[in-house]
Amino acid sequence: MPELPEVETVARGLRRAILGRRIVSVTLGKTDFIDDPVALEQHLPGRSIEAVERYGKFMLLRLSVVNGGGGVPANGDAAPASLLVHLGMTGQLAPSPAAQPCEKHTHVCMLLDDGRELRYTDARRFGRIAYLTEVPLAEELLGFGADPLEVSDVEFAQRIRGRRARIKALLLDQSVLRGVGNIYADESLWKAKIHPARLGANLSAKQAATLRRVLQEILQKAIALRGSSISDFLDAEGEPGEYQRHHRAYGREGKSCYRCKTLIRRAIVAGRSSYFCPRCQPAPRGLKVLPMPGKKRKKS
DNA sequence: CTCGATCCCTGGACGC
DNA sequence: TGCGTCCAGGGATCGA
Questions:
Q1: What three-state secondary structure class fits A227?
Q2: Which nucleotide is nearest to A181 (CA to C1')?
Q3: What ranges in chain A are assigned the alpha helix state H?
Q4: Is A57 a known active-site residue?
Q5: Sequence-separated (6 or more) residues with CB below 8 Å from residue A13
Q6: Which of A169, A216, A214, A220 lies closest to A192 in space, CA to CA?
Q7: Is A266 a catalytic residue?
Q8: Which residues, listed in sequence order, are joined to residue A116 by a DSSP beta bridge?
Q9: Which of A21, A129, A230, A296 has its CA 20 to 30 A from that of A61?
């Protein structure tokens, strides 16, 4: 489940592996998660990858302007463009030798000028790929919130304490903060001793400041350990991350809290499994969060 | 504004 | 072994 640290890890790996490489040709598999598949086939070949950036959970592969020997390219690629990639739940983007058989669920193959292929595989296809020129890209990125690693104390407090939504929902909301997902939301709330169902507006200034600080510490540490590999996250070198060993809340239902030994519980908050210590992270008064609707099925 | 429900998708876990 | 069922979750969307 690639969140900010995992995406940052992949982006760093790609920078080392494919920067400056030219895309020779593109082969597509299933394309229902690609904005405009034809645009990839038309506009990627001939361009080189000039930069790899991360924006929240997105990666941005900056493409060179094509200038094939003097004239304006026939396909109009004389303007800057980027390949926007979201890994969704199960997406992987990594180079492989072209001779190596493709993994199952490989949906995009970009042959590079050094005999490798940059391949995108994604079993569930919750990811997204889009070829975008400058203006559409800028519009695309407009709606996103602050970078959690950069956000100031004041801005963080404004974005959180000005809202009556649950803090868990706010942390997951990409228009509030870009890049935080379920794992790092739960980890930071545990470390800050804040219950996920608390309302943003009800956090004290001190709690908001603590939350911002621990969120940044956790994200930095997770990046240093190359992300969390829960089920199938692999970086651009095909290696798993290590941060899952440091999880204190996420996925630890029924295990004892590292601080107080109370058993970690799970509840659905903001529509997501949320793990917390019921003692360290006291529930807000009047909380109506059904701790786990049992085996709730579709209503009959 | 905020909420929950629903859908997308497949692999893996689990029950029988 | 093999089936059926449930579940995970980021994000879009829609109705309450």
A1: coil
A2: C10
A3: 4-18, 37-43, 134-142, 153-161, 167-172, 182-192, 205-224
A4: yes
A5: A94, A235, A236, A237
A6: A214
A7: no
A8: A97
A9: A230
Residue A292 has pLDDT above 60, yes or no: no
Cβ A126 to strand B below 7 Å: yes
Quick check: A169 CB within 7 A of strand B? Answer: yes
Per-residue pLDDT, A298: 35
Distance A150 CA to B6 C1' (A): 35
Residue A135 domain boundaries? 4-142
- Assess whether A141 (CB) lies less than 7 A from strand C: no
User: Measured between alpha carbons, how far is A95 from A117 in angstroms, rounded to an integer?
Assistant: 5
**What pLDDT does A240 receive?**
74
CATH number at residue A214: 1.10.8.50
Is any atom of strand C within 7 angstroms of residue A181's beta carbon? yes
Q: Which bases along strand C come within 7 Å of a protein CB atom?
A: 6-12
Using alpha carbons only, how large is chain A's radius of gyration in Å? 21
Which among A142, A163, A193 is the end of a domain? A142
Same domain? For A159 and A51 the reply is: no
Please state whether strand C lies within 7 Å of residue A299 at its CB atom.
no
Comparing C-alpha atoms, which of A51, A52, A64 is closest to residue A10? A52
Nucleotides of B under 7 A from a protein CB: 1-6, 8-12
HSE, side-chain direction, 13 A CA sphere, residue A204: 6
d(C-alpha A109, C-alpha A67), whole Å = 23
**Alpha carbon A86 to chain centroid, angstroms:** 7
Closest nucleotide relative to residue A87's CA, C1' based: C10
Task: Give per-residue pLDDT as tens, A214-238.
Answer: 999 999 999 998 877 776 667 777 7
